């Protein structure tokens, strides 16, 4: 009987676990049902590569490790279900770590007062809910979310330190935390003195000016400032970006409108009826979306090919964001307008505010180069994609075709596109 009591969990523990699982389910439904277009667009402007140079390029800058992990996670956003699952797991992790951190900050409440324990458990749901709203804005990058989790995880795992080791431990946390996670380590700067004073041998028990909470806080703030000043000499970013976090938020970036993102998702899923329904309910404002609506009408046999081509208009006016560049590139590939599709993909590849490259745009550049006979260029882009997870198999196919051009004519897609391109006059981007 005693053994059973020892192994069983208190009802409130099971309730908190159930609440965490319910949070994950709610977050999954939010992204999968309500915001699926925001999921796939997070994959639009990234190309995570499994290579040493890619890893080094990230970790040599502040928040580099957080950015590397965020890029790794972003590649799964190529699928709405995978992306929604990643966001759900991150929310559950954020709630769990926040709960552990709150317990460390107020151990007396969590061990003695049941009502206070329930309050802290409720407060632990605030960070994941806040990040759901933050991540609904594509200017806010997944790097910020990962950096937050890294800092909170470091605070939770912070060991109890003697007064003599407290200063060195906190200094190491600030320096390592700043370089791996970025300026969000400021959260640890303000919370570390409270954590280090909650173990049985508080640093306040020694009359040491160096290890008093106020002294510890002051020294950490000074060290944080030193880290920022030092990093300014190592990275090609101004103080404004370094202080607010490299790749935390993209200021004034033209990613695309919500309308363009919804059309982009429907176009990639080839849901032509749904596109026409959207267009009938509210005529598209974006010129790129208007082209997609015309393409959907053509696929549903509502207009002929000449009407579709006549509605194309000025390409340059249609590209005013990253998403619209992807829409125009896809639209042109459906019309076998290879050169314009290539130019739009190039615009997409160069439009990321954090200097990322786009796997989707790189794929388009590889296949357009293949169709225009630029086989060395196609091999260059395919070699980059061969280092990715979800584009590797496709890149290997392109490499085979580029090294054996005679096989392209037998390919069901690229053979036709190459033949159409050769029969038409070269189109310029106007």
Q: Which features would summarize this protein structure in a list?
A:
430 residues; mainly alpha; 25 helices
Write the layout of secondary structure elements.
Layout: H1 2-7, H2 11-34, H3 36-44, H4 52-59, H5 64-74, H6 80-105, H7 107-112, H8 114-123, H9 126-134, H10 142-156, H11 163-181, H12 186-196, H13 213-232, H14 239-244, H15 258-268, H16 272-281, H17 287-299, H18 305-310, H19 315-318, H20 322-334, H21 338-349, H22 359-371, H23 375-385, H24 392-403, H25 414-423
Helix pairs in contact: 2-6, 3-15, 4-5, 5-10, 6-8, 6-9, 6-10, 10-11, 10-12, 11-12, 11-13, 12-13, 15-17, 15-20, 16-17, 17-20, 20-21, 21-22, 22-23, 22-24, 23-24
Overall description:
By secondary structure, the protein is an all-alpha fold. The protein has helices at 2-7, 11-34, 36-44, 52-59, 64-74, 80-105, 107-112, 114-123, 126-134, 142-156, 163-181, 186-196, 213-232, 239-244, 258-268, 272-281, 287-299, 305-310, 315-318, 322-334, 338-349, 359-371, 375-385, 392-403, 414-423.
